[in-house]
Structure formats: structure tokens, C-alpha cells
Sequence to fold (419 residues):
Amino acid sequence: MEIQAPRGTYDILPPESRKWQYIERVIKETAERFGYSEVRFPIFEHTELFERGVGDTTDIVTKEMYTFIDKGGRSVTLRPEGTASCTRALIEHSIYSGPLPVKWYYNGPMFRYDRPAAGRYRQFHQFGVELFGSNNPYADVEVIQLLVKILENLGLKDYELHLNSVGCPQCRERYREKLVEHITPVKDQLCPDCQSRYAKNPLRVIDCKNPGCLEAIVGFPVLYDSLCDDCRQHYNTVQEGLTGQGIAYLHDNQLVRGLDYYTNTAFEIHLPQFGAASAVGGGGRYNGLVRFCGGPDLPGIGFAIGMERLLSAVERTGIDWEKDDLQVFVLVPDEHNRNIGLEICNILREAGVRTDQDYNGRSMKAQMKQANKRGARLVVIVGEDELAAGQFTIRDMVHKTQLTVPKEALLDRVKEILQ
Ligand code: HAM
Fold:
């Protein structure tokens, strides 16, 4: 039997991995400039954390978690998202008693058992940020600005920012009653999932992916009309802040997010060209989560980006990935000079230049082809005649020119050309 990767998972092989490193680097640099620091937390947690944190009526908890009993008889779950784990870590290490706000970012695999489709995997990757300890609407604006900046720094322009407020628990209770009243007469037209959860969590119906459910509840009351004065004020200030920063958004009454911890501001970034998997990132405020998980009454806000979706969007911009590939290929025509080739490789590598040579005994022509294939910008030729004269030939693969330099000048000339 041939063993393959499990359904909904995949390998990231070179040169694909370079693309990942590139987008991860741009994102991390952008987040660091906004004052965020990296946090790393376990790939699995006690199941209870997600049941409580994410919410026991959500799709994630009811259908999508990779949960198993470990050898010690404890129920553990592969993390389906990062906000609950950050909250747990914040409380466990009493980070909240230090300077506020706390600004964290994370990057890594998440796991959800769902039907694999375009842009939907069972193991996927998220880059996320969480800001704990401020309820200032301008913190919301800054978090959204970071999300937008990340897309822009990766060359993405055709995105839509959707924005809504899901209010505080009091607003939502008022809204729940109105919504249940609206849905009850048409409940038989809903999908089985919505029929069983609408009374407890009718917001899930608005969020249902089944188009029949939305048709059945057409004309549903909007959340904004149920917001209390404080929540309305908060939302209006966020909108003013976004406008002030020149960030365009769409107020979206249907945006309620699929996780239970959200309060007030909720947002998603869509790339409409991706159809069903158009949400490249999403997030919002979660002012009750820290307390709900056993910590102090500390507000929070954050977002996560789906890295697979982001990468395919960046790919579609026609980006030239090669600029990030091999920089120098050291070509050694005569096998007995291989050691000198390695010495040149090391000189360049020490200076931070991505360098490689051939180890398969290829002919000079085949090595040149290899250099081309690898996307090398320059080829340094370690030829017999040049060596006798203490020199090396540098071939510029883009401009198709070459020059000969003495060994002492090699590194400086290579760096000069690469710049
Ligand atoms: P989420 O909306 O569940 O939010 O996920 C964020 C992003 O992860 C989605 O917009 C999507 O791009 C990507 N994603 C989700 N599921 C999959 C999948 N099965 N395959 C591929 N990509 C996927 C959260 O996870 C929240 N923790 C975000 C947050 C942080 N809210 C506040 N802080």
C-alpha cells in the first residue's frame, strides 16, 4: 500500500517553501513594526479550552475538532484556532499584571475537520494577532489597519473589508429575541443544523452557508438597530477612525462571525475572486473572553489570516518569486577543483549570499542549465585557466554579460551586482 498524506493536508516542498518564507517574513516584519511580539503555544490543548472559549454551539466545536483521548485518559484537541490558546497563556502566566496592552502575534498550523475544498483544508495555517487590555475604539482601528497593511505590503489591492458590530451580551440578548421572533414562523424551511440551533444561537442562521436559510429569513432584523448607546458609540468611532485613516470598508449586517467570543467590532477581509473561500482573514473584539476563561475582566481584539488563501492571492498578482531564489551558482568544470568551489560557496554564504554548487558531476553545459533552472542571478566559474591566474569569472544571468575578477575582489563585486 502506498501511504499518502491524509486528506485535507499537503506538503510544502521547495521551491514552494520559499514563497511561504517570503510572505511570512513580510507579515512578521509588518506586525513587529506595529509593536507586536511573537508568542508560541502548544499544537494541542485541553478540549475544554475550545469548548468554553470558542463556544459549544459553533461549527468548530460541534463538528470540526480533532479531539482524542490521550494515554493518560485526558481529552485533548488539536488547536482549531489561536485566540483561545493566547487567552489561556495570558491568564496562566499572569501577563495581564504587566504593562498593557499586550500585543502578540502567532503563526502556525491549525486543524479543522471539514470537507476539503478549494481554499479549505484540514490542516491549514494561520497568522494571527491578539491585543489584550484596551477597549479604545482606536485599538480596533489600529488592528484593522495592520490587517490591511499586511495585504498591501504583499501587493494585494482588490480586497473588501467588511465591518459590523455584534454588540455586548445585553445588545445581543435583545437582538436574539427579535431574531427568534422573526425566524420561528419559517423555522421549518431551515437546514437541520439551523433548526436545532436557532433558538439558542439564531446568529448562526444569518451566518449559515446554506443559501436556503438566508432566503427563508429574508428581511431579518439588523443587529445595529439593537445596539445600546455605548456599543453604538464604539462602533461609530471605529468607523470614523477607519475613514480618518483612509481605509475603505463595507458595513455588513450579515457579518456575525462563526465563533462565540465576539463582542462589538467584527470584521472580515474578502477577496471576491475566490468565491466560497473568499474570506482571507477575519477577527473582532472579544471583551468577555479573558474573564470567561478564568482571568480578570480584560478586553481583547485580534484577527487571523488564512495563509493558504493569502498565498494564492499573492500568486495571482503575478509576483516575481525568483527575486527571492538562489543568488549565486558556483560552476566547477573540473571535479578536482570541487574543494575550491566549496571554499567560494562558503565565502559567499558567510556574507549572507544564497549560494549553491553542483554535486552530481554534471558537465559544464549541464551545470549552466542547472544554474538557470535554479533561478541563480549570477554564476561564478571556477575554471582551470582562471584559477592558474588567481581569478574567477562572474556571469550575469540576467544581462548575459561576464567579467573576470581577482579572488580578493570576488565578494565585493558579487555583492555590488546583487544590490
Ligand atoms: P476564522 O474566521 O475562523 O477566525 O479563521 C480566520 C481565517 O482562517 C479565515 O478567514 C480563513 O482564511 C482561514 N481558515 C479558516 N478555516 C480554514 C480552513 N479549513 N482551511 C483554510 N483556511 C481556513 C479565527 O480563527 C479567529 N481565531 C480569528 C481571531 C483572532 N479573532 C480574534 N482574534
